[in-house]
Amino acid sequence: MVDPVVGARWRITAGPPLGDRPRGTWAAARDGVPLVVKFFDEATFPDWRYTVRVADALRARGWPTPELADDTIDVPGGAWALFHRLPGRPRDAGPGEQRARGRLLAGLHESAAATGITGQRGGFADPAAVVADPTVDDWLRIHERTDPDGARTMWRHLDATRAWFAAHPAPDVPRSVIHGDFAPWNLLYDDGRLTGVLDFEGTHHTVQVADFALSWRGYQDEVLRGYDEVRPLSEVEWQLIRPAFRAWLFIDARAELAALRGGRAAALTDLSWPLAHLRKRSPLLDRRAGPGGP
Fold this sequence. Notes:
By secondary structure, the chain is an alpha+beta fold. It has 2 domains: 4-84, Phosphorylase Kinase, domain 1 (2-Layer Sandwich), CATH 3.30.200.20; 95-289, Aminoglycoside phosphotransferase (APH), C-terminal lobe (Aminoglycoside 3'-phosphotransferase, Chain: A, domain 2, Alpha-Beta Complex). The chain contains 11 helices and 9 strands.
């Protein structure tokens, strides 16, 4: 629930939790104006001020992003933030939505590059650095005890991804801040007009095709087609999509292991989500970059 002291300071009436993180985001209102309360747990959302900076910079370029409605409130372990609530609702999912979203993402990346933000967000790294981290090995060794078959699959993909980056240590591809989760539920529309780009929790500076990890998700090929219509992808970018996507599936390993070792978690999250996405197939990417193996 929203801290009563925080609610009183902001003079808000707190409402129900929002989204799939009921402990982190709540509806609220002040003087009849709809708002959103977020708690940024410093362990879950490192360098959260970076996310506000990116959203502000994109809003200055015409994108409808969340805007702070009051001063943030720092507390032990994190911070409370109050945002204006953006209107609209997500579009229905489907091939048409995917292609339009890919085109939109290409436009967002053009604006993101124009922000001039080149610094890296604390706690984040490029895909090559994610898979090179020896913590990932420790994380997988723990998974081997409870899910040896799943861990074996993850090892194969990790080895293949490391091999790709070893062979391509500095790919010449466009970089910028990325959104991090350009999914249908994070885009709001009202009568066909884009009214909200939500959830910058995964934003950081990296190769732009890393944004396909949670927009394409290994199989939504219309997202790639739509993007390529607006900003044609180079051959090396087509080759990079799959390694960058696989690296994203290991992105939480360090934080999960730290939580386990620090007594903040009783066990690691199971491998069902990354394994399910590794099983996805992309006919388009197979044609442009070769079969997905291993």
